[in-house]
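Q: Sequence in, structure out?
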Amino acid sequence: MRIDRVSADSELAELVRRGQAGEQGALRALFDRFHRNVMAFCVVATRDRELAMDLTQDVFARAFRSLNQVRQPERFPGWLFTIAGNVCHSRVGQEIRQREFLETLALEELSETSGAPDEETTQVRILKELLARETDGEMKTILVLKYGDPEHTTRQIAEQLKIPHGTVTVKLMRFRSTIKKRLLRLIADDKAVSSAAGTGEFASGRPT
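A: Exactly. Output:
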């Protein structure tokens, strides 16, 4: 058994060395050998199979870009799963920061629009829906950087994304404006419904 283990380690080390030399066949062999286990790891870490599939690709992309950093090829599996852990931790942390950002922003908008405390859940839901519908990947990144932890200034965001500072500020202003309009509309609708209910307008299913 020990001989088989040594043989397997030697074979793996050889694959890693060939991959470091840029041999595509070796990289494919490493992917085929480990991608199921990495995928399973990502599923457990994120509890989202579709997201785990994307993260698995990201893990191997990062691993292969940095493969020359592996000094002991036989320890490739441990090194690979360290990368997987970092990728999943980063993504899960991003999701948490995004939720915290939405909740914080919801409370800010509620105070500005005089929303009632018991409307918080609805406001957060609206914010989540807006973000989910956002097709501009750059916009989503701006929001997470602006309201995440640590919070970035608009200038820091512009420098990190290598885009004009004005682009960052305009996108943030437009997003907040959209949120405020939706919240104001919701509050107005709620008041109208409450008023109609108070007068019995909907009691018979049609205006009296």
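Confidence is low (pLDDT under 50) at residues 113-119, 201-208.
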